[in-house]
Amino acid sequence: MSIQIDLSSDVAVVTGGGSGIGEGIATMLAEAGAKVAIADLSAEAAKSVAEQITSKGGTAIGVEFNIADPASIEQGLAQVREQFGPVSVLVNNAAAWAIKKFADTSAEEAQKVVDVTLLGTINVMRAALPDLLETQGRIVNVASDSARTGEHSMSVYAGAKAGVIGVTKSLAKEVGRKGVRANVVAPGTTVTPGSSGFIDSVGGADKLAKAYPLGRLGTPADIAGAVVFLASPLSTWITGQVLSVSGGFTMV
Ligand SMILES: NC(=O)c1ccc[n+]([C@@H]2O[C@H](COP(=O)([O-])OP(=O)(O)OC[C@H]3O[C@@H](n4cnc5c(N)ncnc54)[C@H](O)[C@@H]3O)[C@@H](O)[C@H]2O)c1
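That is the input. Now the predicted structure with nicotinamide-adenine-dinucleotide docked in place:
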């Protein structure tokens, strides 16, 4: 006997799937058999990840997608539906951040972080909800442990991610009886192109890893494992939850 995760009847969209954690999530969803749309601001990065997946026998397309622009979201989702059918797994992973003390953050900088990280996630969920209701789908939103613990020089981002958690929990209450589940994965520091500035700002990976009970920083595959679990039939009675994937850094 063995347990396998089989997502071969699923159509997944991974925002920000062109790099880092999103790339890891898209790759593992494809390994579980899902048809995967890599939805990224960079059409080139999305296409390159899709090509890597298809070269290994998976099914994937790259879609140019700006989560901060409702028209781009609609166009991107239309492309996914045309190629693969309605979305059944939505992973909201794209976000924006700036490493800056609160006192030095301008109104424009704060607006951008909230527009992408919180409103972008909300608008992708709004646009994909009819598909998710039709398919009894699953939403997995990538937040951040900073939303639970606070993070120096990342206040607006941490606040926007806390907003993602609140919206996800509330939506989970609204759509649970309609067969849709919505959960959050909250990564700790994970080595990606996007986190290098933060890691440098706190003295480097080796120093930071000492604060982690499991003794190391995360990899995109560490985060992807939790996302695939929450998208899979192994988690059918889990909704509205926040799962910290952070080597034990955050224990709540
Ligand atoms: N890396 C970490 O340490 C860490 C920790 C906690 C949470 N997170 C979260 O994980 C997610 C991924 O982070 P990462 O480190 O892999 O980042 P990354 O910078 O390596 O990748 C982010 C991807 O998102 C895309 N993107 C940016 N803005 C977009 C938009 N408006 N529309 C569509 N795509 C867009 C980028 O082009 C890029 O391909 C983010 O939500 C981040 O907040 C990361």
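The chain has a mean pLDDT of 98.
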